[in-house]
Specification:
Layout lengths: L1 H9 L2 H38 L4 H26 L4 H18 L1 H16 L7 E4 L2 E8 L3 E5 L5 E5 H5 L3 E3 L5 E3 L2 E5 L5 H13 L11 E7 L4 E6 L1 E3 L3 H18 L22
Antiparallel strand pairs: 1-2, 1-5, 2-3, 3-4, 6-10, 7-9, 8-9
Helix pairs in contact: 2-3, 7-8
Amino acid sequence: MDQLRQFIAEYELMDRVAFWGLHLLAALAIFLVGFWVAGRISQAVTRLIGRRLDKTLAAFLGNLLYALLLAVVIIAALDQLGFDTTSLLAILGAAGLAVGLALKDSLSNFASGVMLITFRPFKGGDFVQIGSTMGTVEEIRMFHTLLKTPGGQALWIPNGGITNSQITNFSVKPTRRVDIAVEVSYDDDLRKAREVIEQVVRSDERVLSDPAPQIVVVELAAHGVRFAVRPWTKTADWWPTTCSLLERIKLAFDEHGITIPYPQQDVHLYPQGEQQQ
């Protein structure tokens, strides 16, 4: 017993236990309180951002803020225990830089995803053209955007490639113009051809009266006279209206004897040894 007391007195064991016990309790308190505060702050920020921006972006930013706050709390707790947090921060910084360089493409896609969700050049359900690719937007995620092509395929496009491409959104406006090119033969009556086209266009209930349809001659082409037929319709009706007008104009031309020309050549044959005068 005396030896134990002598050992405790010699190494100041009670003082050391008290010292480390207090620091351990303080570190534990910092971690628990910090853990609770970080959760409340991240939830509040998520709700605040979610009122103005996309919920996906709000949730991601809330989780990112929570991770950063939790890292600060852990470093503060380790500092309370006497660890050299300066060296730890340097190591974490170097590791973060290495990870950032390794994941630069993913980070670029992430930044582009934030821009797409924030500025909203399109949303789910919109029919868009991105570069040379067309499709309906199914889902916008932080790194990729999912398109459903007209053929029914699922196409994942990296967000970085989207923001670096030209984006055409066919769904953002309520109305859209139909553009049809029609040629008639030079031998046909031009006025009659225009009247037939006008009758077909105006009889379609999907064609809007304002703005008024345009039917104009745009070119005296090599094989015939070319009309530009430009009615307006609701965006949702654009495709069926285009197909219907093409079919009905052809049928109306057949009924009125109006010819749609096609490429042809005139070949002249001369007897052997005879030259063209």
